[in-house]
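Protein in question passed on here:
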Amino acid sequence: MDKDDIKQNIENNSDVKNNGRNWVIVILFLGWMFACIDRNLMSISMVQVQDEFGINATTTGMILSAFFLGCIIIQLPGGLLVDKWGARNVLLVATLAWAVFTGLTAIAWSVAALFVVRVIFGFFDGFFPNASSKTIAETFPLRQRARAKSLVMIGGTVGTIIAAGAGAPLVVAHGWRMTFFYTALIGLSIFLLYFFGLRRSTAGGAAAANTAEQKPNVSVKSLLKQRVTWALFFTALSIQFVGWGVSSWMPIYLVRARGVDIETMGMLVALSSAVIMLAALFVGYLLDKISGYEKYFAIFGGLSTAIFLVLLTTASNAIMAVIFQTLASLGCVFVNMVVMTNPLKRYPVEAVGTANGIIATGSQLGSFLSPLVMGITIDASGGSFTSGFLLLAGFVLIAAAAGSQIPVIKGLNKPKNTNVETKAS
């Protein structure tokens, strides 16, 4: 995208009214929260699932990766559907399917059935990032989108905290199957909230979209020709490979390698996630204040994550392991926020869903490969988690390298008359 397109995008969104913005944040926050409760609950429950089905690390990785296989299938077409059908319609389909397939997870009768259910759940979950990004782009002016997105993404961290802090005790007390059944009821309530509340939340955004200058749809081909699209794609792929490798296997590592019980593991994961939540707010604020220079956030985040993952493999006890994991995850936050917020700033509103779909395909591909490759690596090394974490430490350097290719744009979120310069550094 050239600088004139970016300036036009700024102008078209500078007068978006404040009506309903807070409600948009709340409702998207809750949706993201539920999605992350479910996907993190699978990792929290995996010790019991391993014991029930008698599976090894490779099969465990397959089950953890199944969700993301579904996400990959729908990412790009999902982005196109969001741009064509509208965010509300897509969000309603997604949230209803969440509730249904979370409930079906609870009654999976075999490893194969569990795998298929998780793939289908991931398929419908894959609609949510594109639809939520589209809603934010239609509702918020460019200069506020990173903060809005970071607030919504905090819902994911809250979901992780709930899955670990409340889900782990439920798994111990009632078993993993009943815990997923209870979670399905939460999913149904989220669908009802979207059904009755999303009309109100999208009113302001729809009005803003209608009053803005109408522009033709941007083709996928034109988006793929842009350097920033590929930089964000590979940054997303590699950082999600690392992030979900840690998220998926850290609970199992604490129980199997460190001898921590499931409830204590849940508490440690919840505390770590709370720190990460605060960091995401801070990074979102910085990205709005220092907009256009996101490549440096990605480089810093990638390098720091690599350092702390190496230190994780040398930790003397479970507490030190969690501390190093938390610090590594903080580095991931810097890179993740760059990936999640840049499509909202660097593409016109009418292309946000499609652009986000392309980039999110990279995210989901990394997320799909990570648990599976980690499982294979752990089995190949005789059950050692060290090799898996070192693999992640090497992979995160790819995120730093890809992030360094994001073009610098001076004055990205300044008014129209401000000089906006694109620099290929």
The first strand starts at residue 408 and ends at 410. DSSP finds 14 helices and two strands in the chain.
